[in-house]
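Q: Predict the assembly, please.
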Amino acid sequence: MTGVRKQKAAQTEAALKEAARRLFVERGYLNTKITDITKAAGRSTGSFYEHFADKDELLAGLLADMRGQASEQIVAEHPREHDLTDREVLKAHLGMAWGVFREHLPVVVALFQSMVADEPGSGRAWRDLTADTEMLREHLEWLEERGHRLPGAPGILAPAIGAMLAMLAYAVMTAADGGPEMADEEIVEALTGLVSGGLGAFGASRMPG
Amino acid sequence: MTGVRKQKAAQTEAALKEAARRLFVERGYLNTKITDITKAAGRSTGSFYEHFADKDELLAGLLADMRGQASEQIVAEHPREHDLTDREVLKAHLGMAWGVFREHLPVVVALFQSMVADEPGSGRAWRDLTADTEMLREHLEWLEERGHRLPGAPGILAPAIGAMLAMLAYAVMTAADGGPEMADEEIVEALTGLVSGGLGAFGASRMPG
DNA sequence: GTCTATACCGGGATAGAC
DNA sequence: GTCTATCCCGGTATAGAC
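A: Predicted assembly structure:
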């Protein structure tokens, strides 16, 4: 039976992925060479190409793993009601996003680097950002339809909030030391306050004149 | 006199910088090779090294140019009062930052890519982010000392706002087309509303229970 | 200072034995 | 499927003529 072979192959693939995850956090996606990965995994260079066409495909694999893992828990926990003007609901959302970043840091780092390294002319940053915050945008639109007054168009607020979350998480989680001496909980709390105030309190006219 | 030589050299250096600026926006800093720059500038490869040790040094030069230009106008326009709870003051600040990003896009793109491409383990992202938002942090601390209640520590709010601004600007300004069909003014207005509400309205307890 | 030519090397990718 | 050995190219950086 070929089961043994398959198993061994699966082991190698897993080893490569595992090594990649580790290296992506330490050195980053861009600076990690394929040979670094194979070396760290204790395999040969040639073996890599039996499993992945290139580094991008490996990343895609990691991403798929993450989605498979994360989507379950998210769907399970995801509240049906989405009144983001409710401070606690908002905080739950932000906290969940932050937690996913934290848990899948290798993939997050890799994706972030890969996105930014792309040709600016490709417009990929904007595309990714809007795609990843689509759900948030819809929630905001829903609020608007219900008569809630937002400080701006959902089409810009959602990407803005997503940008803040992603960039800040990247910075905080890769801060070797000397980062914010602050627990994740505190950070999420602060962000919640910032966003919550902006989204919710807009009716209270602070307009001059 | 050697003035003629010097002048020619200065011309070459300027040409290289100018070409670099153009290419950085189109292809990005990382994807632009030294040979691309010299080619675009109509100079030879070897000539490059007469002016810069490497690509990093060229970027440092561009950055210096930008600072020299920007600091004047900023200092000139910078209001002495910094009550960021005043919506218009806040908007002026955000608008100014956005304008600098827009005007010096090549340098901004290059710095951003360079920052993100660094080894995550270096912690550079957090270091840069805190350094670039130091002034904002001080303003927030000043507010706090005066008894104003913020939604979180200035040490995290300032980087958070900076992260939002930087990442969003990068995404928006490199969005080939299909970006937000929105003028800069509208974007700044929306961001102002978002941040202003968060910073200012916190007293109004929206706490549950 | 600027050019042409080239040395040099890192690293992606493949060939072919096992 | 995995290995070793190698090809090969892009791109940095330098040498030396002008």
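Residues 24 and 106 of chain B are 5 Å apart (CA to CA). Chain B is about 70% helix and 0% strand.
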